[in-house]
Amino acid sequence: MSIYSDLELDCQPFPHCIFRNFISSQAFAENLKKELLELNFHEKSNDLYKLKQCARFCTTVCRAALFGRFRSWLGEVLGVELEPTVDISCAKYEYTDVLLCHDDELEGRRVAFILYLVPPWQSSDGGTLDLYTTDSNLQPQSIVKPLVPSWNTLVLFEVSPVSFHQVSEVLSQDKCRLSLSGWFHGPSLERPPRHTVAPVQRNPHLPRDETVLLEWINPIYLDISYQEQIQENFEDSSEIQLKGFLKEEKFKEVSEALRLSQIEWKKRGPPNKRRYEAAALDSLPQCVSACWELLHSEAFFLLLSNFTGLRLHYLCPADDEENGDEEKDKKQQDDGEATGSSNEPSSADVSREKEPSTPLCCGEVRRWSHGGYTLLHDGEAARAEYALDLVLPFGCAGWQSEFGGFTCYVANEEDEELLTVYPEDNSLALVYRDKETLKFVKHVNHKSTSEPDGSSTCREFYDFSFVYYE
């Protein structure tokens, strides 16, 4: 690292530069801040961030004043020709606003910049620019350099496969983290193939009969006529929430057991994809393990088939299309007998026949607390497929939607939310998604740690999260 008065250069964990007192005229900087705060900001929120932003404000004169000559100088330093176009936007981060771990890589982005116009700021206020180390697979590991925003300071860094960073959650309730940020464009650095992770192992059902359902599940959900109503509702909307799903005594027993210290909770990452804790299955108390086996059991697969109409068990009835195919095959057979033609299946018929697939599932027991989230990412979109999601939450009493921790379903490459599922005690959520539908869990923010009187608390909840495949 090199420091020259108001200039700091450092190559760890990736090349970045800090210019203090970037704007020479304090009057200009103050007037710029005043004008920016008078702009019309729009709240933006998705899996990656929550903030207020104004994207179109900076005139050509403003851009030239801030970055005209500077862009030329920067290009000379890097030894590349930067394009005249500079992407720039203004952002306000206030209490609980955040920008989670990402690398900024997009075609044409070469250098990222942030100009801070903030009041006196401490690390305890949050809103730091956190720089991550990366592992041998170029995946982010841990924060090694948090940069505290300061007035009239410009931070630059080279956009690369390892430039993982985040804006930590703003914890101050009375300060505004105002900044101008964007990118200088030029030839992108070469990127190695993205690291791919093997899919989570899927397993067939466990051999358990209906006794396990009678032991665990609210009797109303075992009534055949009620299951038919559930299936009708599910087929209309592809989702349903079944409240009071487990017997009350079973739900209470599991809720208490999930808080026991014997459970080994393992952090799930990397931070550009997820951050939460999952239980080691061999450390689960007996009743929690039994609940896990319930959701994995053959009897439960059949119950899900009855709830949804999906082919999750060989005993579930064939759908109308299959019945129609059977009638069509019978008619073709009758026609063949009448005309004397062969009843042997053609090669085309044989090619259309499919071996029945074995329904599979995968799942985990998760713990959610302040800072937990999951993100959408390219690998997930590429592997998206038809699936039934199940979530069964525990310990949600007092949990509010403004804390985060809810599951959002979105269409691939679109921001619009299709469905939001909020955690609710003993409410089984079932959602069927297609290949164009992705999901994420919204960042659990600092409000989850505060009581109405301002005192601190430690809220957390748990859930069983399973995915079933036909």
TrEMBL record:
Transmembrane domains' residue ranges: none
Record's compositionally biased regions (Polar residues): 339-349
Domain Fe2OG dioxygenase span(s) in chain numbering: 84-186
Family according to the record: Belongs to the TPA1 family.
Source organism, top-level taxon: Eukaryota
GO CC term, one of those recorded: cytoplasm
MF (Gene Ontology): iron ion binding; L-ascorbic acid binding; peptidyl-proline dioxygenase activity
Catalysed reactions, semicolon-separated: [ribosomal protein uS12]-L-proline + 2-oxoglutarate + O2 = [ribosomal protein uS12]-(3S)-3-hydroxy-L-proline + succinate + CO2
An example Gene Ontology biological process: regulation of translational termination
Gene from which the chain derives: OGFOD1
Keywords: Dioxygenase, Iron, Metal-binding, Oxidoreductase, Vitamin C
UniProt feature coiled coil, ranges: none
Pfam families reported in the protein's UniProt record: 2OG-FeII_Oxy_4 (PF13661), Ofd1_CTDD (PF10637)
Source species: Astatotilapia calliptera
Protein name: Prolyl 3-hydroxylase OGFOD1
Cofactor: L-ascorbate
Lineage: Eukaryota, Metazoa, Chordata, Craniata, Vertebrata
InterPro entries linked to this entry: Oxoglu/Fe-dep_dioxygenase_dom (IPR005123), Oxoglutarate/Fe-dep_Oase_C (IPR019601), Pro_4_hyd_alph (IPR006620), TPA1/OFD1_N (IPR039558), uS12_prolyl_hydroxylase (IPR051842)
Record region (Disordered): 321-358
